[in-house]
Amino acid sequence: MAVDLLLGLQWGDEGKGKIVDVLTSKYNIIARFQGGPNAGHTLVFNGRKHVLHTIPSGIFHDNTTNLVGNGVVIDPVIFKKELDKLEEQHVDYRKSMLISRKAHIILPTHRLLDAASETAKGKAKIGSTLKGIGPTYMDKTGRNGLRVGDLELSDWKERYRALADKHESMISYYNVDIQYDLAELEKEFFEAIKVLKTLKFIDSEEYLYQAQKAGKTILAEGAQGSLLDIDFGTYPFVTSSNTTAAGACTGLGVSPSQIGDVFGIFKAYTTRVGSGPFPTELFDEDGATMSRVGQEFGATTGRPRRCGWLDLVALRYACQVNGVTQLMMMKGDVLSGFNTLKVCTAYNYKGETITHFPYNIEPENVKPIYTEFKGWKEDLTEMADANQLPKALNTYIEFLEKELEIPITIVSVGPDRKQTIFRNSK
Ligand code: IMP
Known about the structure:
Helix content: 25-40%
Shape: globular
Distance between the termini: 17 Å
Bound molecules: inosinic acid
């Protein structure tokens, strides 16, 4: 069976967790392929909200296997907290969770290095979630990292010490005021490692190969969004992994020839958290309304998200880079009540009209060119069928489908699992 992918097409926070949860009943295995606890995947069902950071979003379904792939970076301390929450809700994660031996471990000193690097950057900071993501991936590509499989070796603590000592000298190199008590952080870390070691570590690429051969259905779950991709995102204001489709191949050990559907998730408008250019960002009442109605605050850091109109130039680029086969539009309900909606269909790039995503998208280089649409007043949150959607929303959706040449098969009208409308689905 082919492996389907689900990923975000903007700057993260598109609502991937909700859709994975909605689609999970169709899959035997849900596999996270990159990122780590910088992610915050929110799921709402039975009147309760659940936020997952590293654990795949299929975890609340019985009979689904949840794999943390080799491309993911794991902070044992945050992972343990997630497990504790699952335990409180009587979720039997032990039988359904597998962890790749090749996944890298976030050390307490990686988090400190993240903080030191951001502080040293001053105004030019990335706006990182400070979860140690960048420094951990640096150690991975620098060939110094500690992996989950290392925890099965007798000398892993010596390897840990050597790496943590090196990090301490790097922190002092930054020459910034970072206060920390490493002994305290390590106590918590070693406790959490003990819990991590009670879970099943596997050679996940072999597991997935055999699962495919046996006809199991697999959904690869992305984190962050395509515009935060280390190669194709708005560098340097990006995360440190490949969030795009190719990242699923390297982050799980799945061959490109085995990829099936690529589900691209996007919001009906745009948000961004952290620093970096954002051509359609709004600083007016419309942006404030999106923020308020959409409750646009980071699920991991609680930071307010910047809001703006939908950017089709960026969305088209993300669809191309990922080879998206189906689109899923989130938070259409947030746009109810606007008299006029705008969609950026081209950029004025240094005086020239362009429709591709250029190297520089800073405000001095790029001005968005908008097409306007009539808004709708209807509350969408109680709607359950595509026939109920207002005419003006259908016009908006059909315009996007035509421009992107990809069908929109799901329209989400609220955070709950049940607030999901299927249209034109295969
Ligand atoms: P880092 O991955 O924590 O180093 O953060 C790098 C950039 O990516 C920052 O602008 C973050 O705000 C952003 N970022 C990281 N993870 C997420 C996410 O899950 N959603 C939205 N933005 C994210």
